[in-house]
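Try this one yourself first.
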């Protein structure tokens, strides 16, 4: 049984790059991939948080490294893409978890708000996926995993440009699945419900709203970063080879409510 499960889910010998991997859902996923055997490069803006995450995983016996990167501009994204391959080589797995969540009232959204959101949330996944996906296809194995949002599928709590950016990610995922599916590369999204992370800090200031969101789930609670561990290991491994172009909802049943 053990060898069978390893053939499906072990990530030994694989390399992963996780953007936004030092906090929230990204950290939960980076930790899961590392514990499953992958060599993981954690990409984020803050050196201190990267170092703390890498140190924690290294203490567990995992292989992890960190790269400080700027996803807010094209040049920064391209530079990061090259820096991230230095520790362990070209990746087999890319997880796009970094994101920003700007939510002014819709009539007050500026062009700068739009550009900033689309660059981090949509352009960075495109450029990184294109940069690494070609090599994955040449090697015959690749896993592209994007963190999406309920607001890519429905509008609520002022989805605004954040929802639009995540809708772009869903379409990007399907385009990647079409482009490289014949070459052993899959592309999928993980769709959270409301997850208690720094990205949602503003909304967490309203305990009534937090409780209301928990009531919208079938399970009766809001999500945690560790809820994404099993799903991410599954989508990153050999066992998911026939699953691509798919949105996997990790939301406690919120989307079915």
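Now uncover the answer:
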């Amino acid at each position: 049984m053990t060898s069978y499960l390893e053939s499906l889910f072990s990530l030994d010998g694989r390399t992963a790059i996780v953007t936004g991997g030092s906090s929230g859902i990204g950290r939960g996923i980076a930790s899961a991939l590392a514990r499953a055997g992958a060599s993981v490069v954690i990409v984020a803006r803050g050196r201190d948080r990267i170092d703390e995450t890498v140190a924690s995983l290294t203490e567990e016996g995992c292989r992890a490294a960190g790269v400080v990167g700027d996803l807010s501009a094209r040049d920064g994204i391209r530079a990061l893409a090259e820096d991230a391959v230095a520790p362990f080589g070209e990746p087999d797995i890319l997880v796009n978890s970094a994101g920003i969540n700007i939510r002014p009232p819709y009539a007050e959204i500026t062009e700068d708000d739009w550009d900033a959101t689309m660059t981090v949330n949509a352009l960075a996944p495109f450029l990184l996926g294109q940069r690494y996906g070609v090599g994955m296809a040449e090697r015959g194995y690749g896993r592209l995993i994007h963190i999406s949002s309920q607001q890519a599928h429905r509008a609520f709590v002022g989805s605004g440009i954040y929802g639009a950016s995540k809708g772009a990610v869903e379409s990007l995922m399907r385009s990647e699945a079409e482009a490289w599916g014949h070459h052993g590369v899959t592309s999928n999204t993980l769709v959270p419900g409301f997850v208690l992370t720094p990205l949602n800090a503003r909304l967490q200031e309203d305990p009534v709203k937090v409780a209301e969101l928990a009531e919208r789930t079938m399970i009766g609670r809001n999500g945690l970063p560790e809820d994404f561990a099993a799903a991410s290991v599954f989508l990153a491994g050999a066992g998911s080879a026939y699953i691509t172009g798919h949105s996997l909802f990790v939301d406690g049943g919120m989307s079915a409510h």
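Discussion: Residues 154 and 245 are 19 Å apart (CA to CA). Strands lie at 15-19, 39-44, 64-68, 93-96, 142-147, 185-192, 246-250.
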